[in-house]
Amino acid sequence: ALFRDDTEVCVCVCELFQFRQGKSISKKNKKMWPFWWKGASGFSAHSTAEQVTHGIDGTALTAIITGASSGIGEETTRVLALRGVHVVMAVRNTDSGNQVREKILKDTPQAKIDVMKLDLSSMASVRSFASEFKSLDLPLNLLINNAGIMACPYTLSSDNIELQFATNHLGHFLLTNLLLDTMKKTANESNTEGRIVILSSEGHRYAYREGIRFDKINDEASYNTLQAYGQSKLCNILHATELARQFKEQGVNITVNSLHPGSIMTNLLRYHSFINTLGNAVGKYVLKSSPQGAATTCYAALHPQAKGVSGEYLMDNNISSPNSQGKDTDLAKKLWEFSLSLTGEEEL
Fold first, then answer.
1. Alpha-carbon distance 280 to 266, whole Å?
2. pTM (2 decimals)?
């Protein structure tokens, strides 16, 4: 199976040349713009994580970032730590995580960074991480669900669930639920808005026709590597949509948004050699760097413009729009109940 501690994405060849769609925070003047054009936020696909967080003081905040030891997860960790945020790196490989931590500390000696083990494909590991974190009695202002795997051959997780669904969605779903009480307590005691950021992908547009195969999650015969990935990324959007609805209904001072970080060529598509070859040939002209890929995550997590914005799908540091399935509130509720049943969690 293909595991990576980041969710950098190159979905398909056509996306290398697509314009990105966005709309303003006020949802007016919906626009299309190429890589270098700025949206209503004042930022574009070209903006970097440092640029979108320039001048922001995060010293009072604590964040958990999954998949923080490489790629855009590493860059997100570096920039949030640079802005004073206490970052907990939740990673599968703690040796790699500690190497990244030491590298960041060399450039930013005052950075506050901890490394903790988390394997999102294992519910036992997720529960262990959440228990250990809560035992530290730390606040939790920001939860960034960044980690992911992509387009791996059919594999079952340790819990006997298809691996991409288990890792990209279900592990993050369980982690989020287990940490919500801590986030709610932090938001109430600090009178500061909590923020949950869930990394999805434009790959959600290439899911199975029915969107989510509730009755065929583990069906090997009809498994398609990229469509299964798209399904998991659609789940990320619907997770954010339903959680945002519940927070609004409950009056909880926490926002939750999903986002597409941008197309960033990595070895995530090692099983799709043609796309890898073409991407490597033209990617330097049209794909994002890691600092650009981490920008929308950092924007959603720290920027004042994102205050109060919840249940949205962001791209290139601006609000965008998912496909029709990503807007389906009934599908979001069905996914929520399905996920609760698989994790054994009670309703919030």
1. 9
2. 0.89
Per residue in 199-238, pLDDT tens?
A: 999 999 999 999 999 999 999 999 999 999 999 999 999 9
**What is the share, in percent, of the chain residues with pLDDT greater than 70?**
82
Residues with a catalytic annotation lie at 223
Identify whether the C-beta of residue 236 lies closer than 8 Å to the C-beta of residue 168.
Answer: yes
Torsion of CA 90, 93, 280, 292, to 10 degrees: 20
Measured distance CA(117)–CA(121) in Å, rounded: 12
DSSP helix/strand/coil, 64: strand
Which of these, 14, 71, 65, 53, lies nearest to 206 by C-alpha position? 14
Residue type at position 255? T
Beta strand segments in 10-140, E: 20-22, 31-33, 62-66, 86-91, 113-117
- CA terminus-to-terminus distance, the chain: 33
The CA R_g of the chain, rounded to the nearest whole Å, is: 18
Residue 302 DSSP class: H
Given the structure tokens 């056509």, which residue do they identify?
14
3-class SS at 254? strand
Helices and strands counted in the chain (H then E)? 11, 10
Say if residues 47 and 292 touch (Cβ distance below 8 Å).
yes
User: Letter for the amino acid at 132?
Assistant: E
Whether 284 and 127 have beta carbons less than 8 Å apart is answered as no
Give dist(CA 7, CA 68) in Å, integer: 10
Q: Which residue has the tokens 């490489």?
A: 70
**C-alpha–C-alpha distance, residues 336 and 330, integer Å:** 10
- Cα separation, 345 vs 348, in Å, equals 9
Given a contact cutoff of 8 angstroms between Cβ atoms, the answer to whether 25 and 319 are in contact is yes
Q: Which residue has the tokens 């340790």?
A: 158
